[in-house]
Design goal:
The chain contains 17 helices and 26 strands. The longest helix has 29 residues. The protein is 39% helix and 20% strand. The termini are far apart. The chain is globular, with a radius of gyration of 31 Å. By secondary structure, it is an alpha+beta fold. The chain has a seven-stranded mixed β-sheet with strand order 10-11-9-8-7-12-15, sandwiched between helices. A four-stranded mixed β-sheet has the order 4-6-5-16.
């Protein structure tokens, strides 16, 4: 499987690193599909297609002409496998910069780098490289790390590059490295030695700044900022995400404490300064040993056939997963919506919600004697699979649909947004025969063939059930390694399952459709509300319900339940009646 991929646009070259085949490069061949009466390929809509190699990307009638180059290659070369590649070497690092000359700026990188701590996952060795002009410390190997002192920053950085190239990492991580360590290190290397030496951070000498993602890339090495991994996969909102805070929460281990500032510590206690730099790296290494977020990131990206850096973009790895799913079934996807950029800008400018969201029931304050908790398994994925919500299964939308009105036999006909009319009896017949389904926002879906969205969700759902069963089995047998393996695998499936419905309403997503997105959430709202109503009926009529406190004429109080029978005085006649049938203003007979 692939370890890394890079598209060198100016040379039209794909650079690919594979855990078995090693490194190779080859020209990229772009292609697309167009409608053809006798084509050998089929779109998800049933169109006959032929593959073409010369085309305009602006042609609105093409299929898959706009797939990202790296995703295109990974989907085509690794169609049959979602497995995570092996043989990775992870370099964890942290830099310290002097601040006597002012706060360090990552673009100008004028301040000296005073030390660099790093960890090599292949050997489990730690290193600290430190500038020590006064020769206070010696080169030495302690129980924790190899300490290397240098007379100047230039010597330190030259040795860092030598060690870096010896380790030859496939993944580099650290805390907040996207925002500080990596851009500062690269620009400092460029200032002191020139761009060609700074580009040694890439095994093929290709480093670049991405204005869109606001970060540096080194071709052949995945720079994965651990603070981003943590915020992406830790689902608890925290007051802050400083390394010291996270280290104490997850490991009961914080940064080294000291008086004054780091520059003073560097001057007065170099040994403690070295320990400070080293501990910052140790915390990140131990975090990943516990949380294994790097492996989780890899597993999700391999499922989506995208570079590891795309782990923060669910629309990218979900698109890649769907393209792979369709390719395995010899089906071709449509192009992305052509007006996606315009739609995104309008959403930003107007501040509109992307689509109708989930239902949150307002709490009724008070003490409850009976509590009912209902957890609907994978609600949104289940709705998509049940209704067959997908671009190619969508038939029409009713503008005046109301499910409760329909169930009670309301209006005799419904109007489509296209100007058509559907009679109630015809719609009921289609629903009864399970030819179509209808969502709570009135979208009608064909049930003749499983759509690509519910199809891949069904696959992921079954895989998750399988992995959870294996996780439990190995957990009971005491095999920790296999338990952890299947625990991670089921988590990957859970993340994929729970992410897909959200990107349906994202204009940049290939399978974007706002009505489909709202079909999921509005139906979810109705399921929750209807379930609550049904539970309340059963609760009140059969289980006693919430007690009602009634004040009698003599000032005393009596607690009554909805299914109780009590005596009431109505118009001078004593009656036995259910509490649930009483109305406000009824007179109670006193005890």
């Amino acid at each position: 499987m692939y370890q890394n991929i890079y598209f060198q646009r100016e040379k039209n070259l794909i650079h690919l690193w594979d855990d078995v085949l090693g490194y190779r490069s080859f020209p990229y061949t772009r292609y697309a599909y167009e409608k053809s009466e006798h084509g050998m390929f089929t779109s998800i809509y049933g169109d006959s297609l032929t593959k073409i190699y010369k085309f305009s990307k602006d042609d609105p009638d093409l299929f898959e002409s706009d797939v990202a180059e790296t995703t295109r290659v990974l989907v085509d070369l690794y169609t049959d496998s979602d497995e995570v590649s092996t043989g990775h070497t992870i370099l964890t690092y942290d830099i310290e910069v002097e601040m006597l000359s002012g706060l360090p700026d990552t673009e100008t990188a004028q301040n000296e780098i005073t030390s660099i701590a790093m960890h090599d996952s292949a050997t489990d060795d730690y290193f600290v490289l430190v500038v020590d002009k006064d020769r206070i410390v010696d080169n030495k190997k302690t129980e924790k790390a190899t300490i290397l002192r240098f007379d100047s920053e230039r010597e330190l950085l030259q040795e860092f590059l030598t060690i870096y190239e010896t380790i030859n990492p496939t993944i580099v991580t650290g805390w907040n490295i996207d925002s500080f360590d990596t851009p500062y290190l690269y620009n400092r290397l460029k200032n002191l030695f020139g761009q060609s030496h700074a580009n040694r951070l890439s095994p093929i000498g290709e480093c670049f700044w991405s204005p869109y993602r606001q970060r540096y890339y080194a071709a052949g090495v995945s720079y994965l900022d651990y603070i981003r991994l943590y915020r992406n996969y830790n689902y608890t909102e925290l007051p802050n995400y400083r390394l010291d805070t996270i280290g104490r929460i997850e490991l009961d281990k914080g940064k080294v404490e000291y008086d004054g500032n780091l520059d003073e510590l560097f001057k007065t206690d170099l040994e403690k300064f070295i320990e400070y730099n080293l501990v910052d790296v140790e915390i990140v290494v131990e975090l990943d040993r516990k949380l294994q977020f790097i492996e989780l990131c890899q597993a999700i990206c391999h499922a989506g056939h995208v570079p590891y850096e795309d782990f923060v973009y669910s629309s990218k790895y979900l698109e890649g997963a769907l393209l792979t799913y369709l390719k395995r079934r010899d089906l071709v996807a449509p192009n992305k919506p052509q007006d996606r950029k315009k739609r995104l800008e309008e959403l930003k400018e107007k501040g509109e919600e992307k689509f109708i969201g989930a239902y949150v029931k307002p709490p009724i304050v008070g003490k409850y004697e009976w509590i009912y908790d209902l957890d609907l398994t994978s609600l949104y994925p289940s709705i998509i699979m049940t209704l067959n919500i997908s671009p190619e299964s969508k038939i029409e939308k009713l503008s005046d649909w109301n499910s409760q009105e329909f169930l009670k036999g309301g209006r005799e006909q419904y109007h489509t947004e296209g100007g058509g009319i559907i009679k109630r009896e015809n719609l009921k017949s289609l629903l009864d025969e399970r030819n179509v389904s209808i969502s709570s926002n009135g979208v009608i879906y064909s049930l003749d063939n499983v759509g690509c969205i519910p199809g891949i969700l069904d696959l992921w759902f079954k895989k998750r059930v399988e992995y959870k069963d294996e996780m439990k089995r190995w957990g009971k047998s005491g095999d920790t390694e296999k338990y952890e393996f299947y625990k991670k695998r089921q988590l990957v499936q859970k993340i994929l399952l729970n992410s897909l419905y959200g990107v349906l309403g994202l204009p940049s997503f290939r399978f974007h459709d706002r009505e489909n997105a709202e079909a999921v959430t509005t139906t979810g709202q109705e399921v929750i509300k209807s379930t609550a109503d049904m539970v309340n009926v059963k609760y009140n009529k059969e289980l006693g319900g919430r007690p009602i406190l009634i004040e009698l004429e003599d000032g005393s109080e009596i607690k009554l339940y909805p299914n109780q029978t009590v005596s009431v005085n109505r118009d001078g006649i004593i009656q036995k009646i259910l509490v649930s049938e009483l109305k406000e203003g009824d007179d109670f007979v006193s005890k």
